[in-house]
Amino acid sequence: MYTAIGYAAQSATTPLAPVTFQRRSPRPDDVAIEILYCGVCHSDIHQARNEWGIAVYPLMPGHEIVGKVTAVGGAVTRHKVGDLVGVGCMVDSCRHCEACHADLEQYCLEGMTMTYGGADRVDGSITMGGYSDSVVVSERFVLRIPEKLDLASAAPLLCAGITMYSPIKHYGIKAGDKVGVLGMGGLGHMGIKLAKAVGAEVTLFTRSASKAGEARRQGADHVIVSTDDEQMKAAAGHFDFLLDTIPVQHDLNPYLDTLRFDGVHILVGLIEPVDPALHAGKLVMKRRVLAGSLIGGIAETQEVLDFCAEHGITCDIEMLDIRDINEAYSRMIAGDVKYRFVIDMATLKV
């Protein structure tokens, strides 16, 4: 064990504050990492405030981690001291179920171990995330950061990037497909970039016409203002796929109408009950599919890092001093960030 420092919430109603805590010494298959950057995901806020009802305190968020290897266990073969690496939303799984054997560790039948707020499978201790100076993770869940990627901008690819890439790959979205992206936050702007990179014709759905210029700067071909009934009617039966990043309850029915027959509406942002009720006829009468997707497996996450390096894609970020993390949460709730905060961990040591 060794002493680490970071920022954590002690309860759902207290702000994040500096803490010291114990990290485990590396096990034979472990990689010890000095954290250089950590992205700030909206789910960090949900967890810190226990909005999903599963938080365990003290809770140290952060699952978009980029850093440098400082030590490795004796059985490690994939990484060496000095390597630039990343850690995403999970740090372990059962490794033997059908999902794990299919490189879909996020769907582990025994439950993945989350990077923070999870239970370590060896000693039962609560995992602490990337708002810290260091982390120790099994090599199987450590990713290689390609040389071409800017380290800070690469951090959100470990959550936002893979969340959008996984459904694009799974559903075979390709050149010529008509793809609608719902919402343009941290997830949505990555969805636009990745869908364009595979050659799709991309349309942003937004409630605000003022976002049209920014959407096109991100690569969108078209913009539909979802509160404009005429624009929504004109889009009826047009899209092959919808990538829905909206994180709060919203009416799915008008969007389903914009799908062609056999079209697929993929939820990546909403994990609450659908409200208002879904009209099943909108699915049945056109053989449409309503689906969901959760982050991605480890191999697939490495794939999106390599894909983004090859295509020059990174997340648009705003650098953050960790001492301003609580203010950053308030700004995120207000939608005042384009499009992801990334903590410079050098500020933790000042």
UniProtKB/TrEMBL annotation:
Domain Enoyl reductase (ER): 11-343
Pfam families listed in its UniProt record: ADH_N, ADH_zinc_N
PROSITE patterns, per database record: ADH_ZINC
Cofactor(s) the record lists: Zn(2+)
Matching InterPro entries: ADH-like_C, ADH-like_N, ADH_Zn_CS, CAD-like, ER, GroES-like_sf, NAD(P)-bd_dom_sf
Keyword terms of this UniProt record: Metal-binding, Oxidoreductase, Zinc
GO molecular function: alcohol dehydrogenase (NADP+) activity; zinc ion binding
Family: Belongs to the zinc-containing alcohol dehydrogenase family.
Protein name per Swiss-Prot or TrEMBL: NAD(P)-dependent alcohol dehydrogenase
Organism encoding this protein: Pseudomonas gingeri
Classification lineage: Bacteria, Pseudomonadati, Pseudomonadota, Gammaproteobacteria, Pseudomonadales
